[in-house]
């Protein structure tokens, strides 16, 4: 029987082989495209300080880094951050990313205080605030979206935004996104438009929009427990993904 791992254990175990799954690359590429379409002003060089929650091995992070001033990339699984750091070490020209191993709950968390571009200069600041918060394929793993959206709100500057992408809970078939062996640590089978909109508004966000970002085909198990190998095998199913956007329109 395959051992079922949950939470950080699961992602620590999967980190070394995460990038060998073609479907996670495709999802990150499509997420980047949607983020750039929804935030045309991000293309202004070097203007955005970005916080990414649940960065994993950095598939979205490395793709978005050229468009932003700085990227603080946070993940609670040390294995994922180790894989991220190994990739970063192989790209010495990329200097605007700072990977951090943390499960954030406090906007004043000292671990996100450093500016990736000036790591020695800002250590005395009480906090650091961001222009944009991203998270891709992460919301379905987060126990309390209510708490996380409040934390995100606290991490933003006035005028800062969230652009969060994840697959949609479109009904009972959405459960098939994960193979049975990986379902235990999953908090929800995708995100629901109305629920996310309401929670973002409750956290204080304005101009909240939750829209279809893209659709993607993915290999799923033919029947529960049949297994898929590194994102391939079984049968193909189409999954809708949402982009969840909101603006912080006031100071803390
Ligand atoms: C499905 S992976 C996605 C990783 C990456 N964003 C990607 O697309 O390749 C989910 C990631 O979320 C992280 N994660 C799980 N629970 C989290 C939480 N409560 N807060 C932040 N990140 C979390 C995991 O460690 C994992 O790296």
TrEMBL record:
Entry GO MF terms: methyltransferase activity
Superkingdom, taxonomy of origin: Eukaryota
InterPro entries: SAM-dependent_MTases_sf (IPR029063)
One Pfam family from the record: Methyltransf_23
GO biological process: methylation
Entry keyword annotation includes Ligase: no
Keywords carried by this UniProt record: Methyltransferase, Transferase
Protein's name according to its UniProt entry: S-adenosyl-L-methionine-dependent methyltransferase
Organism: Hyaloscypha hepaticicola
